[in-house]
Design a protein that fits this description.
36% helix, four-stranded antiparallel beta sheet, elongated
C-alpha cells in the first residue's frame, strides 16, 4: 500500500514521538481510515526508514530495584553473578553461567547450557512455539534453587538480547 507524503510524514512523526507499532496502526486507522495489519505497519516503518524506540520494560525496573547490590568492590554483578542467595540468614552471591550454542540443537530455535551455583550443568532450549525446556541429564531429579532460577532467567534474557533474539 502506498501512502501519501502527508501520511508518511505523520507516521515518521508518530514513531519519532515514541509510538509503538501498535499505536501507529491504531492512529493510521483513526486518522486516515487506513486498516493495516501489524506486519504491514512494521514493513511500512522499515520502508520509510523510521526506527521504533524501545520502551523501558517496567518488570525489568522492578527486578533491578528488588535485587540488592552485590558485595563486589565495584558494586556491580559480574555476568556470571546474580542475586543473593539466603542461607541461614547469611547472603552469598549466586554463581550461575549461561552459554548460547553456536549450532542450535534440532527442534529448537535457540539452545545452550547453564551451570548452576552448585556446579550442576544443564542443557536448555526454546522451541519454535516459544516453549522452554531444561534438561539435567546428569541428575534427572535435580531442581535448581529459586535464586539460581531467577539468576538464570535474568542472564538468559541478557544473552538472548545480546545475540539478537529479543
Amino acid at each position: 500500500m502506498q501512502l501519501t507524503n502527508e501520511q508518511t510524514d505523520a507516521v515518521r512523526a508518530w514513531v519519532d514521538e515514541g509510538a509503538s507499532l501498535s499505536e501507529v496502526q491504531t492512529r493510521l486507522k483513526e486518522t486516515f481510515g487506513l486498516e493495516m495489519t501489524y506486519l504491514d505497519v512494521r514493513l511500512l516503518v522499515l520502508d520509510i526508514g523510521a526506527s521504533v524506540k524501545d520502551k523501558p520494560d517496567p518488570k525489568k525496573k522492578e527486578e533491578q530495584k528488588a535485587e540488592p547490590a552485590a558485595p563486589d568492590a565495584d558494586g556491580e554483578f559480574d555476568e556470571a553473578e546474580s542475586g543473593d542467595e539466603e542461607d541461614d540468614g547469611q547472603t552469598t552471591p549466586s554463581r550461575v553461567s549461561v552459554t548460547l550454542d553456536k549450532i542450535v540443537v534440532p527442534g529448537a530455535m535457540v539452545s545452550g547450557e547453564v551451570t548452576f551455583s552448585d556446579g550442576t550443568k544443564s542443557r536448555w532450549l526454546i522451541d519454535q512455539y516459544g516453549r522452554f525446556g531444561l534438561d539435567t541429564q546428569s541428575d534427572p531429579g535435580y531442581r535448581p534453587s529459586e535464586d539460581d532460577l531467577r539468576s538464570f532467567q535474568t542472564q538468559l534474557r541478557t544473552v538472548l538480547r545480546q545475540n539478537g533474539y529479543a
